[in-house]
Write a structure and sequence with these properties.
Length: 445
């Protein structure tokens, strides 16, 4: 006997009860269009769940539900009317958030005001103010960003066009002895896993009074005009500590459409999480990342465009920005931490981590972590052929290698707190190693 959920049906119409307050029915109807192709009640339930996910990503509704009613029809199968209930967010939204800076591993706080669906098409005007934990935008690091986002919905997949205007100040005095002021504008187009951006950035590097001569040489104003493409694919189940799944990201950038900066840059990473068929529920996470930054047309390599590594977020066992090229005055060569990190133009890094769940607590999920990591970084030199930096990256005695053990707490606030004991197997004189390390991160590496 056929399961009632598998009996044939067709959706005759979709009605909104009550009608949406801010966003137009036309916009929602585009997102709900696949419901008309449902062939059974089971299929309709599945498509309704998928539709809720499509609507939810625009952050315009608090609650959404469906009621399916039989309707009179002479066509084959059961005719169904889908009644949609929507509770929308207010048009003006205010959010506060704590973030983890991806390159520094430090906490920041932000306040964001959004004006949603002013034209009824789920567009958003946003104004965001973000500052470092000291609460200062002008004396410390801070970011003020205004943006406009317009989604484009059609049968070929959801797309989005957005533009932004941003002014921020980054404080790098703790690790590189400079401040960076940044005024930027740009536009982006997103479809599925792909994103294309054009950005124009006016950047000013202000060396600290105690900076080394290398940082003073980097000082001044430069303009970057670039186009970039990003591809992201992620099936992992948890970004703080995945237990299964695969993730890959590739970021490519071409600068030189006017301005001082001219380079080709690419950064990529892959990660695989595998649950092991062993007692205790062990999880193995493998990762590899790499990148290159090659100036051209007589342009120099700017510190703002180079790669930095070190810290919980990128390379355990070393201080934040504590791996790679560093300028240390001759009289301080025995204390590399007193020098200034200047960044690298080529790098690779790999890691393997074995995780063990230790329990669930009010503050989050606690895991043990046994890890090993390795990598290398080098700078670009004028006249370099591509084989030259590859050769330097492959030198075994120049690599950094670390192993360690630690504890990780995945908090409900989207931040992982990590504490590690590190054993440095191999380092370079310019590196700043750390035996005991505590930090925060927004993603697992």
């Amino acid at each position: 006997m056929q399961d009632p959920a598998d009996q044939p049906l067709h959706v005759e119409k979709i009605v909104f009860n009550p009608p949406p307050t801010y966003t137009s029915e036309e916009f929602y109807s585009k997102l709900l269009e696949p419901l008309h192709s449902a062939t059974s009640l089971r299929d309709l339930y599945t498509k309704e769940q998928e539709a809720m996910g499509r609507v939810g990503k625009y952050e315009i509704v608090k609650d959404m539900s469906f009621k399916n009613h039989p309707s009179s029809s002479d066509s084959p199968g059961v005719g169904v009317t889908v009644e949609v209930y929507l509770e929308e967010h207010r048009r003006l939204q205010l959010k506060g958030k704590t973030n983890v800076a991806p390159t520094e591993g430090t906490a920041t706080g932000s306040i964001e005001a959004s004006l949603c669906s002013y034209f009824g098409q789920a567009e958003k005007f946003r104004l965001r103010v973000e500052s470092d934990v000291d609460g200062s935008i002008t004396s410390g690091g801070g970011d003020i960003t205004a943006s406009f986002t317009k989604p484009i919905v059609n049968l070929h997949g959801d797309q989005e066009v957005s533009g932004f205007l941003s002014k921020y100040k980054s404080e790098r005095t703790a690790y590189n002895n400079y401040w960076e002021d940044n005024l930027a504008a740009g536009i982006s187009y997103t479809r599925a896993n792909h994103r294309i951006d054009y950005q124009c950035r006016l950047r000013e590097i202000t060396p600290h009074s105690s900076a080394t001569s290398k940082i003073f040489h980097e000082g001044g104003v430069n303009l970057k005009s670039s186009i970039s493409h990003s591809y992201n694919y992620d099936t992992t189940d948890n970004r703080l500590f995945p237990t299964r799944g695969f993730r890959v990201s590739v970021d490519s950038e071409l600068a030189g459409l006017g301005g001082d900066a001219k380079f080709v840059k690419q950064n990529f990473s892959v990660q695989k999480a595998v649950p092991l068929s062993l007692p205790l529920g062990l999880i193995l996470v493998l990762g590899f990342r790499g990148g290159y930054h090659i100036p051209f047309g007589g342009a120099k390599s700017h510190i703002s465009d180079r790669f930095f590594s070190g810290g919980i977020e990128s390379f355990r066992g070393f201080d934040v920005r504590g791996v790679g090229p560093r300028f240390v005055p001759l009289h301080m060569r025995q204390q590399p931490e007193t020098g200034d990190g200047v960044g690298a133009d080529y790098y690779w890094a790999t890691s393997a981590a074995l995780g063990l769940g230790l329990g669930e607590f009010q503050l989050g999920s606690l895991k043990g972590n046994l890890f090993v990591a390795g990598g290398n970084m080098t700078q670009w030199s004028p006249g370099d052929l591509f084989s030259a930096p590859i050769g330097r990256l492959a030198e075994k005695d120049k690599a950094r290698i670390v192993a360690g053990v630690g504890l990780m707490l995945a908090t409900p606030f989207g931040v992982r707190v990590e504490m590690n004991f590190n054993h440095i197997i191999q380092k370079q004189p310019s590196d700043v190693p750390v035996t005991f390390q505590i930090g925060m991160a927004g993603e697992f590496w």
